[in-house]
Amino acid sequence: MRNRTQHFINGEWVDSTGSETIDVINPATEEVIGKISSGTEEDLDRAVAAAKAAFPSFSQTTVEERIELLEKIAQEYEKRKDDIIEVITAELGSPISKSDKVHYQMGLQHFRQAAEELKTFQFEEERGETLIRKESIGVSGLITPWNFPTNQTSTKLASAFAAGSTVVLKPASNTPFAAFLLAEIFEAAGLPKGVFNLVTGSGSTIGNGISSHPDIDFVSFTGSGEVGQKIMENAASGIKKVSLELGGKSPLVILDDADIKGAAKTAVANVAMNTGQVCTAATRTLVPKSIHDEFVEAVKEVIAAFPVGDPLDKKTAVGPLVDDNQWDTVQSYIKKGMDEGATLVAGGTGKPDGLEKGYFTKITVFTDVKNDMTIAQEEIFGPVMSIITYDDIDEAIKIANDTIYGLAGYVYGNDKETLQKVAKGIRAGQVQVNNPRTDFSAPFGGFKQSGIGREWGDYGIEEFLEPKAILGYNA
Ligand code: NAP
Ligand code: MG
Question: Which of 113, 141, 327, 359 could form a disulfide with 440 if both were Cys (CB 3.0 to 4.6 A apart)?
């Protein structure tokens, strides 16, 4: 049992002023694996006060000092590799191979990338007599979701530290333990006290408290649109800046000249990743009518290469959903798809054979989906693919953009001109052409209701800075 009922405030592990706790469950076994404190408003106040007190000196550190710090954090993070992988598999149910190659790696790369960015980042610029400086925004409140326990936290933390901002982090209550490892990593790296503060607890107390706290200057949130809206409303009273990374319903456009097996693999891998609990998941697969039947056959074949099962088994590609709520939600969307007249090609409701314990679900594929069906419009956050056919590229782009979201887009095929036309035509913050490598220097974030602001690389650092003009500076 992991009993992590203390918060990390001002460089120390401290008890909560309350006594309530929250159980954390392993979604593969349904067993309680530990508990965290359900923090109080006083706990939060204490953490914010520590961050506020640490701000004047941390914001004045030199760029070289912060590069050194981020590099030290990356080194300490690497030393905790086995622990990080173990924790993510236990609390999220992520297959062990993915906890390593995806979750562990993404967390690490954000710290490395932030250090790299600082080597060339322009904090000051002279324009005649005027000096323009980018100064740290102040105390930041970070609220993160459960689906990527290291990636979502690390991108915010690396950017904040690079910009000289001090922070209070509230991780998701169902996958909180990775954040405790980060606290230990920062301690080992010698992060000055008060720069990083960790307070656990409910969204309604700690999350809500962060978004309305008078001493927090900026709230960086990743999570659902519903909560994002509440955060914006709360932040409005104090004219607090917010950055929101929300949901998506991203399209994968397959071109008529695509290698069909490769296209099917790309499509299935994308919705299977993290059991579909990915904000950028390509849940709408747009396929030309001319290759539809062949594509569906290829998808059926490819699914067998994505075994669902025990996350501790190295051969497992897909683990359980994060909790019973998420399982119920995914099941109800699958039922809805059938009720609305989509054709089930693979998967369906219920648990996969032999996996009665744990929140396992089947990789599910629908075809004959119309873009106005619920399963094509709402974010499911499970491994459910909707295949939609199109006649020509202009129609494909139109369908791709017919959504309230704009987080990501994908295009797969051969003709370069068409690939580029589709990539430019999709209104989303990040579009991927033919399975590129992850680029940690590229901005990440959403158009439309997928969010406000950007994370990753130099764009991520910018979010934690305020431009300041000093007129007559060089007069
Ligand atoms: P969520 O319910 O919005 O929760 C996200 C975080 O907000 C958690 O830490 C949660 O705390 C906290 N929270 C809950 N109520 C709050 C309130 N009233 N005020 C302030 N904070 C509050 O989202 P989720 O279910 O964890 O994650 C799934 C959603 O996140 C999906 O919609 C997905 O698309 C989105 N997402 C977006 C991105 C992106 O980068 N764009 C990445 C990943 C996920 P508790 O855990 O204590 O409830
Ligand atoms: Mg939630």
Answer: 113
